[in-house]
Amino acid sequence: MTGKAKTRVEMPEQPEYIRRNNFEEVALGYTEELALMEAERCIQCRRPKCVEGCPVSVDIPGFIKLITEKKWTESLEKIYETNFLPAICGRVCPQETQCEELCILNRKENAIAIGRLERYVADRYYESPESLNEKGRLLSKREKPTGKKIAVVGSGPAGLTAAATLSRMGHSVVIYESLHKPGGVLTYGIPSFRLPKEIIKREVDEIKYMGVEIKLNYVIGRIKTLEELSESYDAVFIGSGAGLPNFMGIEGESLNGVYSANEFLTRVNLMQAWDEEYDTIIRKGKNVVVVGGGNVAMDAARSALRLGADNVTVVYRRSDTELPARREEIEHAKKEGVQFRFLTNPTKIIGDYGDEKVRKYDVKSIECIEMELGEEDSSGRRRPIPIPGTEFEIEADVVIIAIGTSPNPLIFNETPDLEKTKWGTVVVNDDLKCTKENVFAGGDIVTGAATVISAMGAGKKAAESIDEYLKNK
Amino acid sequence: MSYKIVEKEEVATDTFKMVFEAPDIAAAAKAGQFLIVRIDERGERIPLTIADFSSDENTVTTVIQALGKSTKKLTKMNVGESISDIAGPLGTPADVKQLGTVVLVGGGVGIAPIYPQISAYKNAGNRVVSIIGARNKDLLFWEERVKDASDEYFVATDDGSKGHHGFVTEVLKNILDEEKEKIENKTLENPKIKRVVVIGPPILMKVATQMMNEYPDVEIIVSMNTMMVDGTGMCGGCRLIVDGKVKFSCVDGPEFDGRLVDFNTVMNRLTIYKREEIERAEKYKKECEGGVCSTLD
Ligand SMILES: Cc1cc2nc3c(=O)[nH]c(=O)nc-3n(C[C@H](O)[C@H](O)[C@H](O)COP(=O)(O)OP(=O)(O)OC[C@H]3O[C@@H](n4cnc5c(N)ncnc54)[C@H](O)[C@@H]3O)c2cc1C
Ligand SMILES: Cc1cc2nc3c(=O)[nH]c(=O)nc-3n(C[C@H](O)[C@H](O)[C@H](O)COP(=O)(O)OP(=O)(O)OC[C@H]3O[C@@H](n4cnc5c(N)ncnc54)[C@H](O)[C@@H]3O)c2cc1C
Ligand code: SF4
Ligand code: SF4
Ligand code: FES
Questions:
Q1: Residues A297, A195: Cα–Cα separation, whole Å
Q2: Could you say which DSSP state residue A96 is in?
Q3: Which residue from B45, B246, B273 is facing A247, i.e. has the nearest CB?
Q4: In A, which residues are within 8 Å of B70 by CB distance?
């Protein structure tokens, strides 16, 4: 029997000692009983604060109420009104700084686990038999066809959301994606132990059933230019993301065994190099050093553990409290055995084998220097400064650099009138319209690397602007 | 999506011409660009240079050397079968323009990517001299095609089984020296050879570039076949050092000014998976002999 829980209901997880050796999902999700217990805790605020924290304004009390009434399908339909990727968001949204942070209960008895509930409702539907037959699909309700054609570049969360929203408005939408699988970072970046590939496939399939066409292996800027898209479609949305990896510019970064986090994670996730049955190769290090402190660094570190490393060390130039990754992921990483060296910054990567001049065959170690925190910089964070003479080496056969990414550059190819900033992001106005006629943009290509849900928020907003634009055209 | 194999031919020992149906790519392709193909759900992403394309026939042509597991698997497939993915055209097209005389050098499987450049340079109004070479005559291919497309044509084999006995770089040197001599004894007023393009194994491109030090007024362009994953500038796996800066071969290249390329780093990086590749190829061979891959034969 279910009752109202006093505090937040925990979600079952795979035990650390097992999960650190596999790529299966860590968080196992609520059972019906747990979901009902958690849903009962929501006090159904009349003016719900939580909704303000959600970039796509999910009707949170609305869907939670339907859970308590066991109206599962209706609950999911409620979420779908504003969010087409609930099973994904429920897993990867930084809820603690968004919807859940603003939940009224956050101060007293812990915020409602909004993400976990969202995930439960979506998972339950995807596992149900009715979801597999064409008629049972929730998303297929579309407005009358408008006859307008829209091209979307990129199938990450921004592009998928823009496409789904526009399709529901009755427009006909084609997504162009350069990789062989849709999903953007969801597919190539975030590992399956946090976001299983089947979940992405299910939600992308729903969007396809809504009539969105996805053309894979289709690189805009090469096979067709943005100019050509803009001429042959009524409007274009660019959601091409920020995937260009940054390097540190230190000695030894070209040595074998030094990966960008993107390459490492792409090999692991998109290409499934961890699985012997797949053809893509990856170097499985024994001693792995990951440079950086964001979600990307955590994902790389935890993936390296699962590939069989003995030691995985995250090197971060500030202290524990400044780690930009989600707390939950940091805790997961620590429990699984990832070690952290705070206030430490790499100075060079040292190679091995052969004569110095011609061949530095492989990574042998990474030289680091200790740091201390100085004055606050413009971002309000204390700036790390190296302490002279504290250099030391960490043994490493794989080094993964996870110090951020920049916008993907290809889209600008042969498009002189698409203005960009000095950081390579696309310039847009408040309606997310670019400097180029009939072209809109949103997500990481506009903001630089951010979050799944902010990219979705932008996709949704751009869809509304495009709809408005087409009406007035 | 799937992409059908419409033609296949063994053009030289273990080297296959394979033609794929890919209308959109055929319409957009330019000389100097490449494709990334994936055989099936478990396949890796294999970069292959576009050796020819026809927008009338909706096809792109590649020439593939069966080296390791993936290229062996691919070249075992037959006409009528399909592979699951082709992305392209990738890379910046060759910077083809009117220069005067251009010498195009293709070594080994590099003969294939040189071919579309011959007609591109010719159409731009250049005189084209082609030099192709391989270890022996059985590894040569497309001799007639290259010859017909070029104004002047040379062959070299390491073992002398055809054409010049020696390396393509020696033939190149002869051509450049001949012109140098003519200028020195004033039978030629202005140099005609403006550019040399070399495509082939990294060691060939490195040696050719070094040799070009003696001809500082002639440009040297090379095509860098680094390891790649996405081919769109997203992984950085293809990075190399050009003029002291990190460049991504898949978007900034694959063609670069040879004099600016740090070849040693590139050649070192190409060896990263050597051990794994050998293990994998052995495993694949064993499995195939066991009959597991008989469906591919
Ligand atoms: C490892 C990792 C972990 C992360 N973890 C989290 C997390 O836990 N929670 C969270 O909220 N956020 C996380 N993020 C950030 C989040 O994933 C991104 O902010 C979000 O995916 C951005 O969405 P997007 O649609 O703008 O771009 P992307 O997801 O980058 O999608 C862009 C798509 O466009 C395609 N594309 C690019 N150029 C072209 C072109 N020229 N032609 C055609 N297609 C093109 C790309 O292939 C890609 O598929 C993480 C990021 C990474 C890398
Ligand atoms: C831009 C580009 C264009 C290319 N064009 C062609 C082409 O037109 N025809 C063709 O046959 N090959 C081409 N290659 C090389 C081809 O991609 C590799 O031979 C192939 O990926 C090897 O895969 P495999 O699994 O068969 O062999 P593996 O087992 O991966 O490797 C077998 C052997 O090939 C070497 N090798 C692996 N990758 C490369 C590489 N990228 N370049 C050179 N040697 C490599 C390895 O060192 C090893 O000795 C190109 C590569 C790039 C980057
Ligand atoms: S989409 Fe994300 S931010 Fe919005 S309610 Fe769901 S978990 Fe919270
Ligand atoms: S703020 Fe918290 S308690 Fe109030 S409606 Fe939102 S989730 Fe429920
Ligand atoms: S192949 Fe990934 S960036 Fe070039």
A1: 16
A2: G
A3: B246
A4: 279
Q: Cα(A247)–Cα(A456) distance, rounded to whole angstroms?
A: 28
CA A150 to ligand 1 center in whole angstroms: 21
pLDDT digits (tens, 9 = 90+) for A27-51: 999 999 999 999 999 999 999 999 9
Q: How far apart are the first and last CA of chain B?
A: 23
| Least trusted range by pLDDT, from A259-263, B47-51, B164-168 | B164-168
At B220-241, the pLDDT tens digits run 999 999 999 999 999 999 999 9
pTM above 0.90, yes or no: yes
β-strands A258-260, A398-401 pairing: parallel
- Beta strand residue intervals within chain B, DSSP E: 3-12, 15-21, 34-38, 46-49, 52-54, 59-65, 82-83, 85-90, 101-107, 127-134, 152-157, 164-165, 193-199, 219-223, 239-242, 245-248, 255-257
**ipTM for the predicted complex:** 0.92
What is the pLDDT of chain A when averaged over all its residues? 91
The per-residue pLDDT for range B96-135, each reduced to its tens digit, is 999 999 999 999 999 999 999 999 999 999 999 999 999 9
Angle, nearest 10°, between helix axes A295-306 and A327-336? 20
The widest CA-to-CA distance across chain B, in whole angstroms, is: 68
Pocket of ligand 4 (CB under 6 A): A 42-45, 48-50, 60-61, 103-105, 112, 114
Ligand 5 closest atom vs CA B249:
4
Q: Do B251 and A409 touch (CB under 8 A)?
A: yes
CA A211 to chain centre: 24
HEC assignment per residue over A239-274:
CCCCCEECCCCCECCCCECEEEHHHHHHHHHHCCCC
In terms of CA atoms, which chain A residue is nearest residue B25? A223
> Which CATH homologous superfamily contains domain A141-243+406-472?
FAD/NAD(P)-binding domain (3.50.50.60)
Q: Ligand 4 atom closest to Cα of A114?
A: 7
Protein residue closest via CA to atom 14 of ligand 1: A451
Q: Is A80 in a helix, a strand, or coil?
A: helix
> Which of the listed residues A42, A81, A112, A118 should we mutate to test ligand 3's pocket, taking the one with most ligand atoms within 8 A of CB?
A118
Report the CATH number of the A247-403 domain.
3.50.50.60
Provide the token pair at A307: 């590939």
Fold for A16-134, please state it: Fumarate Reductase Iron-sulfur Protein; Chain B, domain 2 (1.10.1060)
User: Are the beta carbons of A263 and B235 separated by less than 8 Å?
Assistant: yes
Interface touch A359/B264, C-beta < 8 Å: yes
Write down the CATH number for the domain with range B3-90. 2.40.30.10
CB pair distance less than 8 Å for A408 and B232 = yes
